[in-house]
Design the sequence.
């Protein structure tokens, strides 16, 4: 083996270094396009690819591809970042661009089938794994950057927080996204070296009439490896500078339907199934991995390496001091030299002086419920109900990405009566509700993204309502369904839903592109329970994600309370719908002797600006930096009518992301702004620390009067105080799940005191991502706290803690 030269990367300019082969190597500063995010997508897709066997004809050798991917992670991870290899590096931009499209995969498969026969050699398997990685990158980029795609993640950021500044939004997404990925997880699954099938890659390009050199391939891929390892070591320390730039990135990084981690991973998994068929048969499948193929893209460049070198090079070092490149006849191996991080002041958090206690000091009984399945989304939503009228209550816990062994469709809702303390695998102590389908479009419906227990048909027995917002697929104009399971006296819930409210076929179609299933609520109108569905990502006219709320009343037939149908009785929108308003993100209600009031949160970003000339260019000048609203509606003349709203000006704090009404004599409504910034006298800005406001809504003289009596602020940078809220008879619980390096805290605010609690076993788990107080008649209540990123039992699987006396 011989060692190949590595260029010296020292700053933003071009530098020349003489290699052992006797000629100069120019290196230009640039970066991989989000190498950490791309690898995270590939890692999650690998898990689902291992687990699922789609019921489709023609997938003959799938188990072989599962083994190949698992045995060749060094090549898979190299392929996952490969398409960005040549941007601004030795003039290989065109070659890098070509690797982002299906013709590169096609040429790679043709090369594989012509040059390697079964049984595959180790070199062939490494090349196959590399191709799977390249396909993962292609799919992720299309969603992440929203290429020719309405409502992609980049477009969301550009049109909200960045005033149509494409470059600013692109920098935030690629650089900030990678740094934030390191905050979420330590990325320990990343390999210490990459195996790059150099000779195969050169021949694939030759098929496409593109000439590249091995030395340029190795040198440019070295930058990618350096960026990946730097993010793994330093990303969590560097992200803090991006916290002030975007609350949307933090809030929607996992969950956004077109470009969040889950959506990219799901689409990659689907792509890999097509790719396996293609390699096996040699015939290109009807379904394509990319929606908009071979579309020219602009501004692919990102600046991860530049950021790392300018902000952390003293801690990380020079490329040639850190990276080692070795070559064999066919392959290139890039690996890490011995490395020690220079630990400096931790700038990721401003510590609070608030004294906190272990939650175990407050409750003498605790049950921890968990799942062994990675990335399940366990802790997304919980409820409690008596579904058979027996007085026996079941706790409902949803995991919208949990994939049961007996089903081909992911998304599980668990029902358990377990009261034992200690740690319990939810699969061993519960019954399940799943959707059953043999179609690939329903494999990941996000079933369980929301759950609601209410007596919707007004027969005196609790019913279970479940949202599945990704029904029809994340690329569909109309997405999502709501499934209703009626409780029955002495029988409980049926295995299949009694009624389905679908985004495709309902009375809402005249309003525009409907996306439902994320938000469910129930309110009483004149003593009759109704189903309220929030659809905050729905498009109204040309207003993307303006949002709406639909109110349904169940009409029973004369024979059976479960045999009727739902009737749409009211549709709520803002008076002048604006794009990205996200009206319907949260819903609460209060009632008095005169009126039924529905309160709706619209935390989305509305930004007004004008263009002014300065320095020979147009500069956007913000008039109102942002504006989020909470609306109040009163039931009048058989419909809800908007009467008032409360507005929060200032940097995007997601005011109204959560509204909660406490069913007590105070009639208080708590409004959360979990990403709100707090400015303090000592000159320190608590970016995305979060706030919660206490408000009272009163009717009279034909309108609603709103008074805000108290405001509580978080005191941790990126803490997201107010991400969850719950009331009990003694006071208010507020979650702050991102504080203390994602360990999380919860706070109790009583009449005369304020207390802080942590979970001693919740390192990095986001303790407080969900809080509810679940009440059982005649048997007290229990505090339920979600830990959405708990990796104690399986990576980022999530867990739920139940606390009671």
Sequence:
């Amino acid at each position: 083996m011989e060692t190949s030269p590595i260029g010296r990367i020292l700053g933003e300019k071009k530098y020349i270094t003489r290699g052992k082969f006797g000629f100069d190597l120019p290196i230009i500063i640039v970066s991989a396009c989000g190498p950490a995010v791309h690898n995270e997508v590939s890692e999650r897709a690998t898990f689902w690819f291992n687990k699922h066997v789609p019921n489709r004809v023609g997938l003959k050798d799938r188990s072989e591809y599962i083994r190949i991917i698992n045995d060749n992670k060094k090549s898979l991870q190299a392929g996952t970042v490969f398409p960005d290899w040549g941007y601004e590096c030795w003039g290989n931009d065109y070659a890098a661009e070509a690797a982002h499209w299906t013709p590169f995969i096609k040429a790679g498969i043709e090369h594989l089938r012509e040059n390697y026969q079964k049984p595959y050699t180790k070199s062939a398997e490494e090349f196959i794994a590399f191709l799977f990685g390249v396909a993962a990158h292609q799919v992720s980029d299309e969603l992440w950057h929203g290429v020719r795609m309405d409502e992609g993640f980049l477009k969301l950021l550009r049109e909200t927080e960045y005033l149509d500044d494409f470059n600013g939004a692109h920098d935030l997404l690629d650089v900030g996204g990678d740094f934030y990925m390191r905050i979420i997880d330590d990325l320990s699954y990343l390999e210490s070296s990459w195996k790059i099938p150099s000779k195969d890659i050169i021949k694939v390009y030759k098929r496409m009439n593109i000439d590249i050199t091995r030395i340029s391939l190795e040198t440019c891929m070295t930058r990618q490896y350096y960026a990946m390892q730097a993010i793994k070591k330093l990303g969590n320390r560097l992200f803090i500078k991006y916290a002030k730039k975007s609350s949307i990135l933090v809030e929607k990084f996992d969950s956004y339907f077109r470009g969040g981690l889950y959506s990219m991973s799901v689409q990659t998994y689907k792509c890999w199934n097509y790719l396996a068929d293609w390699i096996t048969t040699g015939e290109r499948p009807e379904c394509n991995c990319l929606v908009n193929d071979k579309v020219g893209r602009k501004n692919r460049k990102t600046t991860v390496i530049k950021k790392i070198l300018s902000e952390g090079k003293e801690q990380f070092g020079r490329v040639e001091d850190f990276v080692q490149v070795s070559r064999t006849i066919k392959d290139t191996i890039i690996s890490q030299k011995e490395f020690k991080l220079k630990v400096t002041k931790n700038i990721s958090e401003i510590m609070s002086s608030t004294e906190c206690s272990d939650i175990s000091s407050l409750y003498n009984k605790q049950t921890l419920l968990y799942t062994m399945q990675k990335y399940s989304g366990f802790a997304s939503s919980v409820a409690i109900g008596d579904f058979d009228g027996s007085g026996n209550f079941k706790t409902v816990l949803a995991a919208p990405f949990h994939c049961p062994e007996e089903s081909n469709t992911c998304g599980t809702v668990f029902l358990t009566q377990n009261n034992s303390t200690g740690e319990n695998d939810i699969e061993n102590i519960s019954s399940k509700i799943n959707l059953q389908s043999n179609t690939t479009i329903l494999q990941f419906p996000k079933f369980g993204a929301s759950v609601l227990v209410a007596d919707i048909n007004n027969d005196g027995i609790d019913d279970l309502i479940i949202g599945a917002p990704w029904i029809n697929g994340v690329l569909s104009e109309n997405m999502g369904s709501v499934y209703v399971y009626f409780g029955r006296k002495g029988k409980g819930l049926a295995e299949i839903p009694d009624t389905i409210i679908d985004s495709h076929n309902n009375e809402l179609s005249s309003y525009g592109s409907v996306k439902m299933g994320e938000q469910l609520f129930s309110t009483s109108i004149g003593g009759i329970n109704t189903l309220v569905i929030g659809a905050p990502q729905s498009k109204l006219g040309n207003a993307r994600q303006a949002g709406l709320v639909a109110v349904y009343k169940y009409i029973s037939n004369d024979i059976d309370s479960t045999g009727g149908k739902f009737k749409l009785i009211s549709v709520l929108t803002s008076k002048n719908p604006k794009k990205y308003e996200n009206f319907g993100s949260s819903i609460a209600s209060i009632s008095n002797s005169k009126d039924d009031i529905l309160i709706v949160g619209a935390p989305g970003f509305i930004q007004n600006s004008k263009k002014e000339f300065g320095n020979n260019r147009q500069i956007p000048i913000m008039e109102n930096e942002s504006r989020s609203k909470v609306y109040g509606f009163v039931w009048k003349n058989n419909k809800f009518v908007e009467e008032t709203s409360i507005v929060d000006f200032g940097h995007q704090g997601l005011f109204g992301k959560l509204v909660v009404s406490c069913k007590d004599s105070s009639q208080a409504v708590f409004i959360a702004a979990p990403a709100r910034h707090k400015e303090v006298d000592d000159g320190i800005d608590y970016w995305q620390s979060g706030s919660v406001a206490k408000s009272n809504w009163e009717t009279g003289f034909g309108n609603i009067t709103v008074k805000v009596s108290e405001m509580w602020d978080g005191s941790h940078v990126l803490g997201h105080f107010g991400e969850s809220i719950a009331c009990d008879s003694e006071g208010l619980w507020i979650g702050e799940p991102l504080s203390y390096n994602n360990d999380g805290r919860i706070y109790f605010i009583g009449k005369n005191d304020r207390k802080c609690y942590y979970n001693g076993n919740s390192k990095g788990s986001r303790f407080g991502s969900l809080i509810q107080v679940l009440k059982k008649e005649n048997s007290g209540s229990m505090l339920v706290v979600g830990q959405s990123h708990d990796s104690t039992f399986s990576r980022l699987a999530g867990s739920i803690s139940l606390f009671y006396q």
Observations:
- Confidence is low (pLDDT under 50) at residues 1-33, 338-353, 609-625.
- The longest helix spans residues 214-238.
- The two ends are 66 Å apart (CA to CA).
- The longest strand covers residues 639-649.
